[in-house]
Amino acid sequence: MPVISDRGLSLLPNIPKYTKLRNELLNIRADYQSDPDVYKHLRADSTGFSKINRLVYNSDLPLTQTDFEWIKEGFFTHLVRAGLVSEWKSDDRGAPHVVQKLLEYAEGLKKGKHPEFERRLQNAVDIILLGTELTLSITVDGVDFAGQLDGLIYDYEYDSRYMELYVVDFKPNYLVGDRLTYSLLNGIPQVSGYTLTLQEKVNIKLKSIILNAGGAIMFDPNIVLPLFNTFMSIVIENRENPFEALAKLIRP
Description:
The structure is a single chain. The chain has 9 helices and 8 strands. The chain is an alpha+beta fold. It has one domain (3-249). Strands 1, 2, 3, 4, 5, 6, 7 and 8 form an 8-stranded mixed β-sheet that branches. Strand 4 (128-140) and strand 5 (143-155) form a beta hairpin. The mean pLDDT is 87.
């Protein structure tokens, strides 16, 4: 169920830059109130953002599992070492304020605890929540996408004019530091889809955070998703790649 935070809306700066964002959030609330099954209806006729994550696994690829893992491990390692994806463990005091707080809310939560994580976000007072379980849909090049992002927050430490907006996704079944099957980086295509869709609708650049109780990663999908397209072009031959459609939403 989408939950729009009245507190978050009241604290959102009342300037033209955020008008589309405010309206989008109010529309999500209104759509759910008029049709509680709106997400189910959207998903029935769309590609779910969560489904595209399977494409970063070795399914029907012309590679051995060993070769595929070697390529993917190298790619994920490059993203982190080059600073394109920032990564922190739960006890890393050097993480940004927003990441430290999110990790506190994720503490002790394992698989199946999405509702509890969202409840903690809704009760948070030291970050500003705009909403949870936000329903999103978009059509790009004739491909329909739909999904529900876990959370949308904004954060600023010094001056509200320079605040950052983050799409947040909770993935308790992944591991921080892993570079293969359980890597948090496997969630990048899905969360990029959420982030770029909302970014397109509200005309504000957004960043993405994927986390669980063990740690978190942060990235700009406008930079990272094109690299995923290049990576997948290496390991996929003659197979549909929805990342390419989503890349049409990238902003410079």
